[in-house]
Amino acid sequence: MDVYLPAESLLIFNNTRVINARLRFQKSSGGFIEIFCLEPFEPVNEYSSVMNKKGSVRWKCMIGGAGKWKGGELEIQLATGKKQWTIKAILIEKLPDAYIVEFSWMPADLSFAEVLEHFGDIPLPPYIKRKTEKADTERYQTIYASEKGSVAAPTAGLHFTDDIFTRLSAKNIKTDFVTLHVGAGTFKPVKALIMAHHEMHAEWIDVRIDMIENLVNSLDKTIVAVGTTSLRTLESLYWMGVKAILQPAIKQLYINQWEIYESPLANSNITAREALSALLNWMKVNQLQNLFTQSQILIAPGYGFKIANAIITNFHQPQSTLLLLVAAAIGNDWRKVYDHALQHDFRFLSYGDGSLLFIGQ
User: Fold this and answer.
1) Are the CB atoms for 10 and 218 separated by under 8 Å?
2) I need a labelling partner for 117 at 20 to 30 A (CA). Which of 16, 71, 84, 191 fits?
3) Which domain covers residue 39, as residue numbers?
């Protein structure tokens, strides 16, 4: 991989860590209810504060066998030696696309992260038709994963090993990290007949101010996003900077899926350097060392990339927003790339092969 990357490139990785988001409760009748924790359903100032919360939390969840859950409390007990832990779940509300579940546990001084570690299961993609194995807890994580919060791995990063990082360093290729907590919506298929009717998922991002400074100082280099999540984060930073210019008094920077294609943002003609510099200034005015917010950015054919020059990514399913992003990056050549992959038996999806794609080439 390092052979094809220009010297002094800057690689941006997503350092999110997959949580044990699947909880399996057995009803008194013997049947099972599986709860898949998607994201917090409460005010969030930073993700770590939610993961470190003690006693109880409310989360937005998917529920397998929801029709069999007629209300009431579900419970799991776990005993190890003299220690015993208990987690309980109460169904609070049904949403159009999910459920709100309140979890509580004993001992109450455990954090929610510890609760998931004890009781949960790593959420392998649904197309992997087997039970999780002990090895999956590390195999389905990048070696640099550190910030707990994702329900799916940023799988382009699974290709990177300590040896590859050493080779990158020898070529004076720099690295830095952003955090985007991957939601299940990443894999939501595009079922609408036209793209305008597809609702993109919003995901939490967390970016350090010194990383943005590094980005500004590297704009004359080749900036490579490792994975679609890193790329969406980088491009979101540009648009947040544009917003900071157009609305200097704005208190919350957020990108929804269509505003980047509409006026006034789409017609602003602001450079990447101007946008990122404005974002840095906005953060300093608001006394922020980290930018913690959500982005719903949808990158599809017709999008003009502002920050990234290349992307390292796996091969994606048809009718997915991830494939739309690839088509936006390399135009109609995406068909040639995917035909080549199919003809040579490349592996697709999470544990599959990767590709290095130069944007606009």
Assistant:
1) yes
2) 71
3) 21-121
